[in-house]
Input
Amino acid sequence: MKAAVIVFPGSNCDRDCKVALERSAGAQVHMVWHGDTELPAGLDLIVLPGGFSYGDYLRCGAMASLSPVMAEVKAAAERGVAVAGICNGFQILCEARMLPGALLRNAGLKYVCKPVDLEVVNSQTRFTAGYRGRRSVTMTVGNGEGNYFADEATLDRLEGEGQVVFRYRDNPNGSARDIAGIINERGNVLGMMPHPDRAFEDDLGRADGALLFQSVLASA
Amino acid sequence: MKATVHVFLKPGVLDVQGKAVESALHGLGWPDVAHVRVGRVIEFEVDAASPAAAEAEVKAMCEKLLANTVIEAYRVEIG
Output
């Protein structure tokens, strides 16, 4: 599998994602600077990593969503390439309107950093096929603005169309309908607040995240 | 021309900063304070032929970057 990790100024999980992709899925990983206007050819997956792109100035993900490389990421997504936004990457995908809704400040006002149990709501996506038969997985969240918000009609549509992929079993941040991760209508753009890249082998405490990267590999 | 943009979370979107500030004000002896909303003011100079043209430009900036209209509303003042 050939993957790219986009590096924004202020990304801090970019190298974690690279290692996670290499170790769990044997991927060949290209690090792509946000100012680039070209992506490597033949990508199977583009990852927008966690962190604090542009220092979270204005709104989390707002400036990054307008980075030069994002035009290429959008074009690749339109061609069907898989795109995964993790944490800050999820915020960027929402700001870029590649996914509906937005991430608000956590309802409890606190930065939350801990393992969370997730329900795999839809295991029929190219990101989650490896979780088939698993009702529950555990990954780590680390966010101050992970409170998913969308209007009621959008939430109904997401639920109705199977676009809610992960749900918190014990909601840590006030997210609407306990949503932890969603996918676009076409099924190739995933956004999630929990970090599979912080839970991809037992030495990290959990290995559940590896299945996500392996699922994308299997679908490539 | 000077442009001032006010950005606030839309009514109905939980404003946790507003709630925290409100609770602090109550604790400081202003128990009657209600409906605190915390927003953002952005000021800048804009070059335009007329105030109306400036307003149109600044609204375009709001739609593109300064506000996220999924969760925020904005108000533009020129001059």
In short: Chain A has a mean pLDDT of 96. The radius of gyration of chain A is 15 Å.
